[in-house]
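[Automated response] Your request has been received and processed.

Submitted sequence:
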Amino acid sequence: MASIQKINKIWHLNYVDENGKRSRPSLKTKNKVKAEVKLRQFEHEQYVAEMQGIKIAKKAKYFEYSKIYLDWFEKNYPSSFITKRDNFVNHLDNLFGDIYIQKLTNEKVDNFIDQLKDKNLRPATINTILKDLRALLNHAKKAKYAVPDFRIYDVADLDSKPPKYHSADDLKSIYEHAPNHWHWWKLLANTGMRLGELKKLETANVFDDAIHVISTNNARTKSGKWRVIGLNDDAQEALAAFDRSNKYLLPATHRSTVGTALTRACKRAGISPGKYGVHCLRHSFGSHLAMAGVSMRAIQILMGHANSKTTERYAHLSPKHLKDSVNRISL
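Generated structure:
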């Protein structure tokens, strides 16, 4: 049975919800008569819902429920938690503010997308943020909370550009201008590992002829699948320079420190600014595989792409393969 209760001069509802939890939402008034009217309205809504066999959806403000969701996510996907949390803190917090989650409107989402575009975020980055938004709302819906009733669509990605990669000469120059970390960059360029995968790589999963990239709850790969990457002579040379006496192959290092070290080496090597990123080493791996005539399916497996469409960006770098395909017909 519901009642009203004064807390710090403001009247609140006082009732036990369907989960047996005591709830005291504010009625936002100091006037007892107005509070009693709102109590009668609440009781009427509960009565009507009960007569119609409808369960009233629970309500929660964004900051209240985002904490519930992020706590759940950290327990289930700890290796991906920091990235997820950053998307909430840097973007979704600004979208919601402190409103109830069911108060989110389609117009507000559209304006939010425009703001992200104004920040020059790539469509793929925006869609990742929208994916997190949908995940939050779906989690809330399953937990019987009230959520907005409209679909949130991805933004169109109309860009079609080849991946940026380093030539063999560029890579050699980068190694020469990175006396302390050359083996990091050489290993990444010859295995295609993501930086996050290298940081989580345990020495127990490094063998004489291959590296096992394992996906676990605490060290999940992007695709959620494990894979084996064979080691060529250059990768083995790079591995020989690592200290393999610790649990992890790479020393505990902040992500920005790694990026800064590569940027400095690229600058000294005269590499163009658009190719400073660590991910460019991964693209170099896929690109050189394609140019060597390796099949798209093999490249997909080696790089750990969940979707073959991601691998197809390297297809244009395999001219011999494309030419051989055309030569199979004569019209």
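Summary generated for your ticket: Residues 32-51 form the longest helix (20 residues). Strands lie at 3-7, 10-16, 22-23, 210-213, 227-230.
If you did not submit this request, please reply to this message.
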